[in-house]
Amino acid sequence: MNPLGDDARYETSGERFRPPWDDVACVVTAEDGTWGLGMTSHAGPVVPLINDFLGPIVAGLDASEVEHAWDLMAVGAGSHLGLSGVLSYAISAVDLALWDLLGKLESVPVYELLGGPSREALQCYATGSDIAGYHEAGFSAMKLPCPWGSDVDAAISINVDRFTTARGIVGPDVPIRVDGWPIQTAGDAIALGDALAPHGVDWIEDYVFPEDWDAYAEVRRSLPDTTLASGERWYGVAPFRLAIELGYVDIVQPDALWVGGATPTRRIAAIAEEAGVELAMHCTGNDPYGQHLGVALAANTTSEMYYGGSIPDDMMATLRPLPGMAPVVNGTIVPRNAAGFGIELSLSDLERATA
């Protein structure tokens, strides 16, 4: 019997909500033939948005006008379709491709275009269930997913047991975070926060439906001493600015492949830094885009490596692997200094992959 009930989520029925489309590879090409590559998700609706709508908006711009291109897409397309959701995925791919192109044209890594590295390496934490494996591999912190369901008492019991077991493995000084992605209500999030508080939870993230601002306010009021993080399912700059201004979260977590690309991530980081709010980008270490942004943006204090389960033999053979991305070694990543995002793919490689 499932102790969380028939509607238990995250680990038991996540497939029900998994979109059916493949990932997207977006190529932008300059007049001299130099090209840049951007990636995102949900090819079904995203590819026609790029080819039919966004491409014509930015075609003919100078390659140096990357941020202007984002503003055109956000206004020109966003005013018709809204900036959230699937359009933001499409803009992400174009924006990342434009940054990759500009880095190649100027023969510098993207992190140099963003102002240069603000740190020598990314200090990574691992997300998933294999706490002992992550600890042994040298990660500086861990994050546990939270199974959830209609039986809140059972869910809390399971999550407290998982947390205290993890604490017993890594000891009292290693930060352990929890990802409340399947939780949707403020009441459930508050109950989890209260239950984990005595055990030294480092932060709780993604704990209510992403557009439910009343729920964010309620959780903040009820858990004033708990570090709260959110943002992987927010799109564009506006929701981050709102959450920061209202004090709903202590840490913001944009995903460069979803939020609209490197341009809005950079702007979110500036808002967060000015307000004294931390940035902890979603899946920073899992792709070259996050790696470059993570090392360049001073506000990005910690970097995620998502595994879900055990670490594979190739530690980078996980979510979003691309040839040329820097490896994780003893929990740290030093992005490579190749031009653009350093992705080692040719156009013929992409053609074969998409055939």
Describe this structure in words.
The protein has 2 domains: 92 residues, Enolase-like, N-terminal domain (Enolase-like, domain 1); 212 residues, Enolase-like C-terminal domain (TIM Barrel, Alpha-Beta Barrel), CATH 3.20.20. 40% of the residues lie in helices and 13% in strands. Helix 1 packs across helix 4 and helix 8 runs parallel beside helix 9. The longest helix is centred in the N-terminal third of the chain and has 21 residues. It is an alpha/beta fold and 355 residues long. Strands 3, 4, 5, 6, 7, 8, 9, 10, 11 and 12 form a 10-stranded mixed sheet that branches. It is globular and about 60 Å long.
Summary?
Helices cover 40% and strands 13% of the residues. The chain has 13 helices and 12 strands. The strands form 2 sheets. Strands 3, 4, 5, 6, 7, 8, 9, 10, 11 and 12 form a 10-stranded mixed β-sheet that branches. It has a two-stranded antiparallel ribbon with strand order 1-2.
First-to-last CA distance: 44 Å
- Supply the CATH class of the largest domain: Alpha Beta
Task: Round the Cα radius of gyration to an integer and report it.
Answer: 20 Å
Number of domains: 2
Question: How is the main sheet built?
Answer: 10 strands, mixed
SS field, number of helical segments: 13
Shape: globular
Overall CATH architecture of the largest domain: Alpha-Beta Barrel
Overall SS class: alpha/beta
| Strand percentage | 5-15%
Order of helices and strands: EEHHHHHEHEHEHEHEHEHEHEEEH
Mean pLDDT: 93
**CATH-wise, what's the superfamily of the largest domain?**
Enolase-like C-terminal domain
Question: What is the third-level CATH name, the topology of the largest domain?
Answer: TIM Barrel
Give the helix level as a range of percent.
Answer: 25-40%
Question: How many DSSP E strands?
Answer: 12
List the uncertain runs.
Answer: 6-13
